[in-house]
Structure formats: structure tokens, C-alpha cells
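Quick log. Single chain, no ligands specified.
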Amino acid sequence: MTTTDHEPAIAATGLRKSYGDKTVLDGIDIRVPAGTIYSLLGPNGAGKTTAVKILSTLISADGGQARVAGHDLTAEAQAVRAGIGVTGQFSAVDGLITGEENMLLMADLHHLPRSEGRRVAAELLERFDLTEAAKKPASTYSGGMKRRLDIAMTLVGSPRIIFLDEPTTGLDPRARHTMWQIIRELVTDGVTVFLTTQYLEEADELADRIAVLNGGRIVAEGTAEELKRLVPGGHVRLRFSDPASYERAATALREASRDDESLTLQIPSGGSQRELRAILDWLDAAGIEADELSVHTPDLDDVFFALTGTSDPAPAPVTGTAPVTATDKETAR
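-> predicted structure:
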């Protein structure tokens, strides 16, 4: 790859794409530093796959400019293709041939000498724990195995930038976590990962930076923690067992909302150490002891709901597990 230490792996400005009278991308800007994971998060139809197709030269943008892997996306498309790998949400694995044959086919497509192709295929099959299944038809592989083989095939050409378009869709929780570990290892090796996902937990777990795409526009971008700070709703929750202590605290903390049945008070707070310390100092000074103190800060579910108007970007996994839902991130005292 010809990118320098100062040039991002991906830099796009004003990307636009329409199909008829439907605008899919409405002038988005993207900047991905080399060796990081960048997640494009959004609901179905937000334009995530279209962005991947444009940046990987599969389709042309209607407007805007981009440089990928150190090359102009339009003028040097072939050079861009030589520096990237793409794995879509639907596997490119040929189920009629074995895993090893799929790997060797990719080696041939990259014009690797036969001996080198076999060496690279064997190394990647071992790396992705597919050696034992290498001689079996890929049609017999589980969903997670097919996805691992798909990524292994992508790595045959040693790309320094990989586009992963919803790589864990349809996988069970164990296979998803295995895929997450693979993605982390890729970045450890210096690869840049451009990840699209509908799963809030996935973006939170993996991404160095997250862009929320909605209605063809990037409505927010930043680290997971930066995005969470955009949304109000953080609070400290105090629970009491002594009704008298509860009443004293409720009388003094007039900004707190009450729950008389559970004897809990909820105090608006950004969850900072300074705010928490102030509450604890006030309780000590007043001689009031709460039986439990917990802190809630907005999570990506809250961010997504606030920015896109929907709290369920991801469909329920097909494995029968529950969809990702908002949960309190609490620290109990």
C-alpha cells in the first residue's frame, strides 16, 4: 500500500449516490486512519452497503471525491483494488468445492505461483482454524466457518484495507465473538478495517470510530464514548431501605425523581467522577447512607434512538437469540 503515516487509509468527501429519485448517499465525508477499525452504523436502507460498493470500486459515485489505499478512487481504480479486500454480508464461498480449493482459486486469481499459493492457502486455513475441514466441501461448513473462510480468501492477496459489510449477520453469538476476535487480530497486524453493521454491541466492542448513517447522511461521528455523551439521560440512582433516610434525601435533593414504592431516587448526572464524588460527599455530610448507589450513562442504543428515531437497528438474530436491546451500564457500590 502506498499510504504514508500522514495519509488516511480512506478519505472521502461529499460522496453522493442516487437511484432514480431516491437519494441513497447525500454528500457524506469519511476519514479512516490507517490501522484502525471504522464502523458505519445504521438501519437497513441507510446506505451502508452502497458506501462500501463505492469505496471498493464496485460502483461509481454520482459525486464527491475519495482516496483509498493512497490512490484516487476514480483515476486509479485498479491500484485501489490491488490494495483492498472485500467481504460482503453474503458469502462468496463456492459450496461445491472444498475450503482448500476455494483458497487455491483465490490464489490463482491473484496470480500467485502454484507453490506460493499452496503455502499461503495452508497458512490462512490454519490461522482461521479450518485445516481439519479443508478437504471437505464448503457446503458442509457452518455459517461461522463459511464466514471465516470468506475472510481467509480475502486475505490471500495481503490487502492492507478490508471492507467488511455486515460480516456477522446471521451468526450465532459464539460465532460472532469468534469473528470479533479475528477482526481485532487483523488490526493488530496493521490492517485497516472498514466495518458496516446493524449491531450496536458490535460497533461498541470493535470500532475506534463510529459514524451513524441515517437517511443517506452521517448524522454523528466519533468514538463510542463521544457519541454516548451526545445524548442526555444519564443519572445516578440511590436506593434506601430506611424510609426516614429516603425522605430526608428526597427533601434535600429536589432535582431527583422519586419512586416511593422502591425507595429510590434518580438524580440527573453525566456520570463524571466529579459529580459522583459530590453526591457521596453530600450524603456523608448529611449523615445519610444509601444502601445502593448505581450509575447509568447512555449507551449506543440510546444514541441510535435519538439520532435515527428507531431503537432497533438490527433484526433479531436468526439463531433464536434475542435482539440487542438497551441495558443499563451500571456500577454498583
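The first strand starts at residue 10 and ends at 19.
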